Amino acid sequence: MNNARSSRRFRSDNRAVSAVIGFILVFAILMLTLAVYQAQVVPQQNAQTEFQQFEDTRDELIELRNAISTTGQTDVSQYPSVRLGTTYQTRLLTINPPPPAGTLQTSAEYNITIENAAGERENVSTRFLDYQPGYNELRVGSTRYEHSVLYLDERDRRNNVSIIEEQNIVTDETVRITALQDNFQRTGTERVTLNVFPRTVNTDAFPDPDGDAYTVRIPTQLTEDEYWNEALEDADEIYQGVDERDDQPNRLILEVDAVNLELTAVEFS
Questions:
Q1: Less Cβ around it within 10 Å: N or C end of the chain?
Q2: How far are the Cα atoms of 64, 104, 128, 164 from residue 143, in angstroms, in the given order?
Q3: How many angstroms separate the CA atoms of 14 and 194, rounded?
Protein backbone atom coordinates (compact mmCIF):
# COMPACT_ATOMS: atom_id res chain seq x y z
CA MET A 1 0.00 0.00 0.00
CA ASN A 2 2.74 2.41 0.95
CA ASN A 3 4.67 1.46 -2.16
CA ALA A 4 1.65 2.33 -4.33
CA ARG A 5 1.29 5.77 -2.71
CA SER A 6 5.02 6.47 -3.21
CA SER A 7 4.77 5.49 -6.85
CA ARG A 8 1.84 7.87 -7.40
CA ARG A 9 3.74 10.73 -5.73
CA PHE A 10 6.77 10.07 -7.96
CA ARG A 11 4.64 10.07 -11.13
CA SER A 12 2.88 13.34 -10.15
CA ASP A 13 6.13 15.24 -9.28
CA ASN A 14 6.51 17.80 -12.15
CA ARG A 15 9.24 19.95 -10.64
CA ALA A 16 11.99 18.76 -13.07
CA VAL A 17 9.71 19.23 -16.07
CA SER A 18 8.97 22.82 -15.02
CA ALA A 19 12.68 23.57 -14.76
CA VAL A 20 13.30 22.24 -18.27
CA ILE A 21 10.41 24.22 -19.73
CA GLY A 22 11.68 27.36 -18.00
CA PHE A 23 15.15 26.87 -19.44
CA ILE A 24 13.74 26.34 -22.92
CA LEU A 25 11.66 29.54 -22.64
CA VAL A 26 14.64 31.58 -21.44
CA PHE A 27 16.83 30.13 -24.19
CA ALA A 28 14.17 30.89 -26.82
CA ILE A 29 13.86 34.48 -25.59
CA LEU A 30 17.64 34.84 -25.68
CA MET A 31 17.83 33.49 -29.24
CA LEU A 32 14.98 35.74 -30.34
CA THR A 33 16.70 38.76 -28.80
CA LEU A 34 19.96 37.88 -30.54
CA ALA A 35 18.15 37.39 -33.84
CA VAL A 36 16.49 40.81 -33.57
CA TYR A 37 19.83 42.37 -32.57
CA GLN A 38 21.56 40.71 -35.52
CA ALA A 39 18.84 41.75 -37.98
CA GLN A 40 18.30 45.33 -36.81
CA VAL A 41 20.97 46.69 -34.48
CA VAL A 42 24.08 45.24 -36.14
CA PRO A 43 23.24 46.70 -39.60
CA GLN A 44 22.50 50.10 -38.02
CA GLN A 45 25.79 50.14 -36.14
CA ASN A 46 27.70 49.01 -39.23
CA ALA A 47 25.98 51.68 -41.32
CA GLN A 48 27.17 54.30 -38.81
CA THR A 49 30.72 52.95 -39.14
CA GLU A 50 30.48 53.11 -42.93
CA PHE A 51 29.10 56.65 -42.89
CA GLN A 52 31.93 57.84 -40.64
CA GLN A 53 34.44 56.24 -43.00
CA PHE A 54 32.71 57.89 -45.97
CA GLU A 55 33.05 61.33 -44.36
CA ASP A 56 36.68 60.71 -43.36
CA THR A 57 37.58 59.50 -46.85
CA ARG A 58 35.84 62.49 -48.43
CA ASP A 59 38.11 64.78 -46.39
CA GLU A 60 41.17 62.75 -47.41
CA LEU A 61 40.17 62.93 -51.08
CA ILE A 62 39.96 66.71 -50.73
CA GLU A 63 43.54 66.63 -49.43
CA LEU A 64 44.53 64.43 -52.38
CA ARG A 65 42.88 66.86 -54.79
CA ASN A 66 44.78 69.76 -53.21
CA ALA A 67 48.04 67.78 -53.36
CA ILE A 68 47.58 67.24 -57.10
CA SER A 69 47.12 70.98 -57.65
CA THR A 70 50.07 71.85 -55.41
CA THR A 71 52.38 69.40 -57.18
CA GLY A 72 51.34 70.69 -60.58
CA GLN A 73 51.83 74.33 -59.67
CA THR A 74 54.97 74.10 -57.50
CA ASP A 75 56.77 71.12 -59.09
CA VAL A 76 57.19 69.62 -55.59
CA SER A 77 56.05 66.09 -54.67
CA GLN A 78 53.25 65.61 -52.13
CA TYR A 79 52.38 62.57 -49.99
CA PRO A 80 48.67 62.43 -49.14
CA SER A 81 47.10 59.26 -47.75
CA VAL A 82 43.66 57.70 -48.13
CA ARG A 83 41.99 54.97 -46.07
CA LEU A 84 40.44 52.71 -48.69
CA GLY A 85 37.98 50.83 -46.46
CA THR A 86 37.10 50.19 -42.85
CA THR A 87 36.49 47.48 -40.25
CA TYR A 88 33.50 46.99 -37.97
CA GLN A 89 33.49 46.79 -34.18
CA THR A 90 34.34 43.41 -32.65
CA ARG A 91 31.32 41.28 -31.69
CA LEU A 92 31.00 38.30 -29.33
CA LEU A 93 27.63 36.69 -30.06
CA THR A 94 26.63 38.35 -33.33
CA ILE A 95 28.26 38.30 -36.76
CA ASN A 96 29.64 41.03 -39.00
CA PRO A 97 29.80 40.85 -42.80
CA PRO A 98 33.28 41.03 -44.37
CA PRO A 99 35.06 44.38 -43.87
CA PRO A 100 34.14 46.74 -46.72
CA ALA A 101 37.05 47.34 -49.06
CA GLY A 102 37.34 50.36 -51.33
CA THR A 103 39.06 50.93 -54.66
CA LEU A 104 41.02 54.00 -55.74
CA GLN A 105 41.97 53.93 -59.41
CA THR A 106 42.65 55.99 -62.47
CA SER A 107 40.55 55.69 -65.60
CA ALA A 108 41.52 54.88 -69.14
CA GLU A 109 43.68 57.44 -70.90
CA TYR A 110 42.15 60.39 -72.78
CA ASN A 111 43.64 63.38 -74.58
CA ILE A 112 43.74 67.06 -73.79
CA THR A 113 43.99 68.75 -77.20
CA ILE A 114 45.71 72.09 -77.77
CA GLU A 115 44.89 73.56 -81.18
CA ASN A 116 45.72 76.82 -82.93
CA ALA A 117 43.55 78.73 -85.40
CA ALA A 118 45.26 76.98 -88.33
CA GLY A 119 44.08 73.58 -87.08
CA GLU A 120 47.48 72.40 -85.90
CA ARG A 121 47.21 70.47 -82.67
CA GLU A 122 49.07 68.61 -79.94
CA ASN A 123 47.68 66.02 -77.51
CA VAL A 124 48.58 65.57 -73.85
CA SER A 125 47.27 62.44 -72.13
CA THR A 126 45.30 62.59 -68.90
CA ARG A 127 43.08 60.37 -66.74
CA PHE A 128 40.22 60.66 -64.29
CA LEU A 129 40.51 59.45 -60.69
CA ASP A 130 37.76 57.37 -59.09
CA TYR A 131 37.12 56.16 -55.53
CA GLN A 132 34.47 53.46 -55.13
CA PRO A 133 33.62 52.18 -51.63
CA GLY A 134 32.37 48.63 -51.14
CA TYR A 135 29.98 49.17 -48.24
CA ASN A 136 27.62 46.45 -47.07
CA GLU A 137 24.90 48.76 -45.72
CA LEU A 138 25.21 52.17 -47.39
CA ARG A 139 24.55 52.66 -51.09
CA VAL A 140 26.92 55.39 -52.23
CA GLY A 141 28.18 56.31 -55.69
CA SER A 142 31.76 56.95 -56.76
CA THR A 143 33.71 60.01 -55.72
CA ARG A 144 35.44 61.33 -58.83
CA TYR A 145 38.25 63.78 -59.51
CA GLU A 146 38.75 65.52 -62.82
CA HIS A 147 40.71 68.69 -63.53
CA SER A 148 40.48 70.01 -59.95
CA VAL A 149 36.76 69.23 -59.59
CA LEU A 150 35.87 66.69 -56.88
CA TYR A 151 32.32 65.37 -56.87
CA LEU A 152 30.07 62.52 -55.75
CA ASP A 153 28.61 60.83 -58.83
CA GLU A 154 25.32 59.03 -58.22
CA ARG A 155 23.96 59.19 -61.74
CA ASP A 156 24.06 55.40 -61.98
CA ARG A 157 21.58 55.36 -59.10
CA ARG A 158 19.36 57.91 -60.86
CA ASN A 159 20.51 60.67 -58.53
CA ASN A 160 22.50 63.82 -59.23
CA VAL A 161 26.10 64.95 -59.12
CA SER A 162 27.09 66.58 -55.81
CA ILE A 163 30.07 68.92 -56.06
CA ILE A 164 32.52 68.59 -53.16
CA GLU A 165 35.29 70.92 -54.41
CA GLU A 166 34.93 73.45 -57.20
CA GLN A 167 37.14 73.82 -60.28
CA ASN A 168 40.26 75.98 -60.18
CA ILE A 169 41.53 75.48 -63.73
CA VAL A 170 40.06 78.81 -64.90
CA THR A 171 41.05 81.80 -62.78
CA ASP A 172 40.61 85.30 -64.18
CA GLU A 173 42.21 85.06 -67.65
CA THR A 174 44.46 82.09 -66.85
CA VAL A 175 43.88 78.40 -67.57
CA ARG A 176 45.90 76.04 -65.37
CA ILE A 177 45.53 72.34 -66.15
CA THR A 178 47.19 69.49 -64.26
CA ALA A 179 47.02 66.23 -66.19
CA LEU A 180 46.99 62.87 -64.39
CA GLN A 181 49.28 60.42 -66.13
CA ASP A 182 50.19 56.74 -65.74
CA ASN A 183 47.98 54.01 -64.31
CA PHE A 184 47.17 53.60 -60.61
CA GLN A 185 44.93 51.13 -58.74
CA ARG A 186 44.66 50.01 -55.12
CA THR A 187 41.93 47.93 -53.46
CA GLY A 188 41.61 47.02 -49.78
CA THR A 189 40.66 48.26 -46.33
CA GLU A 190 44.07 49.65 -45.35
CA ARG A 191 45.46 53.17 -45.62
CA VAL A 192 47.60 53.91 -48.66
CA THR A 193 50.05 56.79 -49.03
CA LEU A 194 50.41 58.18 -52.53
CA ASN A 195 53.54 59.76 -53.89
CA VAL A 196 52.20 62.53 -56.11
CA PHE A 197 55.19 63.70 -58.12
CA PRO A 198 55.59 66.06 -61.08
CA ARG A 199 56.00 64.87 -64.63
CA THR A 200 57.36 66.95 -67.50
CA VAL A 201 55.07 68.18 -70.27
CA ASN A 202 56.86 69.13 -73.49
CA THR A 203 55.23 72.49 -74.10
CA ASP A 204 57.74 73.13 -76.91
CA ALA A 205 55.73 70.63 -78.97
CA PHE A 206 52.61 72.79 -78.80
CA PRO A 207 51.71 74.35 -82.18
CA ASP A 208 52.65 77.97 -82.72
CA PRO A 209 49.69 80.08 -81.61
CA ASP A 210 48.00 81.68 -84.59
CA GLY A 211 46.60 84.95 -83.36
CA ASP A 212 48.06 84.30 -79.88
CA ALA A 213 45.15 82.01 -78.89
CA TYR A 214 44.64 78.30 -78.36
CA THR A 215 41.48 76.26 -78.35
CA VAL A 216 41.83 73.67 -75.57
CA ARG A 217 39.58 70.63 -75.42
CA ILE A 218 39.59 68.83 -72.07
CA PRO A 219 37.90 65.45 -71.42
CA THR A 220 35.16 65.67 -68.81
CA GLN A 221 32.45 63.39 -67.45
CA LEU A 222 30.30 66.37 -66.51
CA THR A 223 27.85 68.19 -68.78
CA GLU A 224 27.06 71.85 -69.25
CA ASP A 225 23.88 71.69 -67.19
CA GLU A 226 25.34 69.50 -64.45
CA TYR A 227 28.24 71.82 -63.73
CA TRP A 228 30.23 73.78 -66.29
CA ASN A 229 27.70 76.46 -67.30
CA GLU A 230 27.35 77.64 -63.73
CA ALA A 231 30.97 77.08 -62.71
CA LEU A 232 32.33 79.14 -65.61
CA GLU A 233 29.56 81.69 -66.04
CA ASP A 234 31.99 84.52 -65.23
CA ALA A 235 34.59 83.28 -67.74
CA ASP A 236 32.52 83.78 -70.88
CA GLU A 237 35.52 84.91 -72.95
CA ILE A 238 37.32 81.64 -72.18
CA TYR A 239 34.47 79.14 -71.77
CA GLN A 240 33.13 77.92 -75.10
CA GLY A 241 30.76 75.24 -73.85
CA VAL A 242 30.91 71.44 -73.71
CA ASP A 243 30.91 69.07 -76.65
CA GLU A 244 28.68 66.34 -75.20
CA ARG A 245 29.10 62.81 -76.51
CA ASP A 246 27.32 59.51 -75.94
CA ASP A 247 30.14 57.01 -76.43
CA GLN A 248 33.09 58.69 -74.70
CA PRO A 249 33.88 61.55 -72.31
CA ASN A 250 32.57 64.98 -73.20
CA ARG A 251 34.97 67.77 -74.16
CA LEU A 252 35.15 71.00 -72.21
CA ILE A 253 36.15 73.71 -74.71
CA LEU A 254 38.23 76.70 -73.61
CA GLU A 255 39.79 79.46 -75.66
CA VAL A 256 42.79 81.11 -74.03
CA ASP A 257 45.72 83.29 -74.99
CA ALA A 258 48.87 81.23 -75.31
CA VAL A 259 50.66 83.20 -72.58
CA ASN A 260 47.82 82.41 -70.16
CA LEU A 261 47.86 78.63 -70.63
CA GLU A 262 49.72 76.56 -68.04
CA LEU A 263 49.69 72.79 -68.55
CA THR A 264 51.51 70.51 -66.13
CA ALA A 265 51.29 66.83 -65.25
CA VAL A 266 51.60 64.59 -62.19
CA GLU A 267 51.95 60.86 -61.63
CA PHE A 268 51.14 58.53 -58.71
CA SER A 269 53.21 55.79 -57.16
A1: N
A2: 12, 9, 11, 9
A3: 72
Contact 54, 140 (CB under 8 A): yes
The C-alpha angle 166, 226, 224, rounded to 5 degrees, equals 95
pLDDT digits (tens, 9 = 90+) for 95-141: 999 999 999 999 999 999 999 999 999 999 999 999 999 999 999 99
Give the chain's largest Cα–Cα span. Answer: 128
How many beta carbons lie within 10 A of that of residue 236, not counting itself? 8
Counts of helices then strands in the chain (DSSP H, E) = 4, 17
Distance CA 178, CA 174 (A): 13
Give dist(CA 55, CA 40) in Å, integer: 23
Compute how many other C-beta atoms are within 10 angstroms of the C-beta atom of residue 91: 13
Mean pLDDT, range 179-187, rounded to an integer: 96
Residue pair 148/65 in contact (Cβ under 8 Å)? The answer is yes
